[in-house]
Amino acid sequence: MPHRNGKEDRLAAIAGLIKREPIDRQETLVDRLNALGYSVTQSSVSRDLQELSVSKVGGRYVVGGQPGLDIVGATPAGPNLLVIKTQVGAASLVGLRIDQAEHPEVIGTVAGDDTIFVATKSARAQRAFLAKLGVRA
To answer: pLDDT at residue 70 above 60?
Structure first.
C-alpha cells in the first residue's frame, strides 16, 4: 500500500474510522491507519484526536458533530442565560466542547443529561454565540 502523508486526508480517515466502527483505544486507530497506508504513531493520533474534537463516550471515541451529539435547540432565558437542548446523554459532552472552545461570549456552562445552561457576558454576546452555533432561538 502506498505511503500517505496528507494531514487533511489522515484526519478524514480517522473521522471515518471512528464513525464506522466502535474504537476504544488509540492503538487500534494506529493499527487501522497503518493498514490504510498512513505512517502514524500513538502521539500523532492523540494530537489528531484533539484537533478533531474527539471525545470518549460510553467507552468509545466519537467525533464532534456526530449524529446524536448535535444541539437540538436553544432558548434564551433572560439577557445573558441560554438554555441549550441536546440529544439525551449528550449535554455533558457538548458543554465540555463549548468550554474547551473558549468562546469570548461565554462566561461558563452547567450541563445535565440533555440540557446545558450557558451564561453569556451580555444579551449581545448571547446573540453572537447563538449565531456561532447556527441555532435560531
So the answer is: yes
Instruction: List strands edge to edge, sheet with 106-111.
Output: 71-76, 81-86, 115-120, 106-111
82 strand-pairing partners: 76, 118
Integer-rounded Cα Rg, in Å, for the chain is: 17
Sequence-ordered list of residues with C-beta below 8 angstroms from that of 29, at least 6 positions apart, any chain = 14, 17, 18, 23, 45, 49, 61
Q: How far apart are CA 11 and CA 6, in angstroms?
A: 9
Euclidean distance between CA atoms 38 and 33, whole angstroms: 5
Average pLDDT over residues 15-41: 91
Stretch 100-118: mean pLDDT, rounded?
91
Residues with Cβ within 8 Å of 130's Cβ and at least 6 positions away in sequence, in order, are 74, 76, 82, 136, 137
- Residue 44: in which H helix or E strand, if any? helix 42-51
How far apart are the C-alpha atoms of 47 and 72, rounded to whole Å?
A: 29
Q: How far apart are CA 115 and CA 106, in angstroms?
A: 16
This prediction's pTM: 0.53
- Per-residue pLDDT at 87: 77
- Quote the percentage of the chain above a pLDDT of 90: 41
